């Protein structure tokens, strides 16, 4: 042991504890939101690589936009010294910008882009879920079980509200409900001068969204519920129109000897299936509107959202011409004769195959189901 | 004294516009289809979120 005095020395400065590397959006190297800049810094790669990747993915189907928006929302921005952490308003701003961008893409894209209604529906449901979660307390306040329970309760209440409003609108109360939406909007405007009542937004949307859905589908559930099977045998038994609210309707005209000339018939269905069997010697003209679903007229079909079908073949003089005006909210309308390949449509698998294709929402185009066969040959046969 | 809340004003105006669109459809002045409904709804929700986000805490 040495007795030599020791001079007090401050210990050498210790290395700062390693800071865990964290992915953040760059606030200094940014073109839009700093996503590529942050990725480049995190992986120590030139950010231009990521920017090119986003552009390429966008052009190759649109995934780049989706990935960028997701990163924008999910990855935090660089922290600013001396500034309090961001609160929910920032998230709402970003979410609002993203949803507006989505709206613009849907409006301008019209099927060109990668977006499809199911994807949008999932996004809307996710946004509503997040809003309800936050309304139930979010990350603060209450036990997790209580928050989940409250969120589920709000979802159930909102779902019941959706269904009630949808049926009310489909039964003919749409104008009143639309007026209620305007009234809620007006109440919000007035409340803005009194401090604001932002919660009014939720009931307004719960009312407006199902009403919009009913309006876009052209839903009308007047006319009853159930199954209808009509088999007139004479022209006198044939009605001008057939209507059903919800269910299945089958109309067999094969036993009717239609007179030469124009015979109009209206078919209205709210939600369900309409199947019309026509004689082979009849020339079929059709004007069909389907909000969401499928329509087939003889050997041509189409399906998806906003299906507008018009077929007005040129016929020889004196032929029997059946002019069908169909309006289906959600479901299908099929017009079949034996030339179109079906003698009994209930047992024919191809009908079901075709109906399955109606859920290809982006299709919305006419397909020829029987190439080379003129199923509407009645237009060329003199009576 | 009550403070003016611009977010409520913006949200109210947007909802009024959406309601008017729906009312015009119900009155058969126009024919609303899914192709226009989706962007209208998304635009409404987005504008509301944006207004609330830009004006800070909700009340």
Could you characterize the architecture of this molecule?
- The complex is a heterodimer of chains A (about 375) and B (about 60).
- Helices cover about 40% and strands about 20% of the residues of chain A.
- Chain A is α/β, with parallel strands linked by helices and about 375 residues long.
- Chain A folds into 3 domains: about 20-75 and about 90-115, no CATH class; about 135-215, no CATH class; about 225-380, no CATH class.
- The two termini of chain B are about 15 Å apart.
- Chain B has one domain (about 5-55).
- Chain B has helices at about 5-25, 35-55.
- Chain B is elongated and about 40 Å long.
- With about 60 residues, chain B is mostly helical.
- In chain B, about 60% of the residues are buried.
- The model of chain B has no long low-confidence stretch (mean pLDDT about 85).
- Classes of the chains: A alpha/beta (about 375), B mainly alpha (about 60).
- The interface between A and B is large, with 64 and 51 residues.
Question: Features of this protein?
Answer:
heterodimer; A: 383 residues; seven-stranded mixed sheet; 7 strands; B: 59 residues; mainly alpha; 71% helix; elongated
Helix/strand order of chain B: HH
Oligomer: heterodimer
Treating each run of at least 4 consecutive H or I residues as one helix, how many helices of chain A?
A: 8
Rounded mean pLDDT of chain B is 85
Could you estimate the helical fraction of the residues of chain A in percent?
Answer: 25-40%
């Amino acid at each position: 042991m040495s007795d030599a005095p020791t001079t007090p020395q401050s210990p050498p400065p210790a290395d700062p504890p390693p800071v865990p590397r964290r992915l953040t959006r760059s606030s200094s190297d940014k073109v839009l939101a700093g996503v590529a800049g942050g990725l480049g810094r995190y992986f120590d790669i030139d950010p231009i690589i990521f920017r090119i990747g986003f552009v390429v993915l966008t052009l190759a189907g649109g995934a780049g936009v989706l990935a960028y928006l997701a990163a924008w929302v999910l990855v935090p921005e660089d922290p600013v010294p001396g500034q309090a952490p961001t609160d929910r308003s920032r998230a709402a701003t970003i979410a609002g910008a993203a949803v507006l961008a989505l709206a613009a893409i849907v409006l301008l894209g019209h099927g060109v882009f990668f977006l499809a209604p199911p994807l949008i529906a999932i996004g809307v449901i996710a946004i509503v879920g997040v809003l309800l979660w936050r309304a139930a307390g979010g990350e603060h306040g209450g036990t997790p079980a209580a928050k989940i329970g409250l969120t589920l309760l709000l979802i159930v209440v909102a779902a019941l509200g959706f269904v009630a409003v949808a049926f009310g609108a489909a039964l003919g109360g749409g104008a009143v409900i639309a007026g209620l939406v305007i009234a809620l909007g007006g109440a919000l405007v007035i409340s803005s001068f009194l401090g604001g009542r932002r919660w009014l937004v939720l009931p307004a949307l719960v009312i407006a969204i199902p009403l919009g859905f009913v309006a876009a589908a052209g839903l009308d559930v007047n006319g009853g519920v159930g199954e209808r099977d009509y088999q007139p045998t004479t022209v006198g038994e044939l009605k001008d129109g057939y209507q059903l609210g919800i269910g299945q309707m089958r109309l067999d005209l094969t036993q009717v000897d239609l007179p030469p000339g124009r015979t109009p018939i209206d078919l209205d269905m709210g939600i369900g299936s309409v199947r019309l069997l026509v004689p082979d010697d009849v020339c079929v003209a059709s004007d069909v509107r389907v909000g969401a679903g499928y329509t087939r007229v003889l050997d041509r079909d189409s399906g998806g959202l906003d299906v507008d079908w018009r077929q007005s073949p040129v016929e020889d003089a004196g032929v029997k011409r059946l002019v069908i005006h169909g309006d289906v909210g959600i479901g299908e309308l099929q017009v079949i004769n034996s030339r179109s390949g079906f003698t009994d449509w209930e047992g024919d698998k191809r009908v079901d195959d075709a109906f399955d294709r109606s859920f290809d929402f982006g299709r919305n185009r006419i397909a020829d189901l029987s190439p080379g066969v003129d199923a509407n040959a009645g237009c060329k046969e003199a009576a | 004294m009550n403070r003016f809340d611009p977010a409520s004003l913006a949200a109210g105006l947007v909802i009024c516009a959406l309601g008017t669109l729906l009312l015009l459809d119900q009155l058969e002045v126009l024919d609303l289809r899914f192709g226009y409904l989706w962007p209208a709804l998304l635009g409404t929700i987005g504008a509301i979120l944006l207004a609330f986000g830009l004006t800070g805490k909700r009340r």
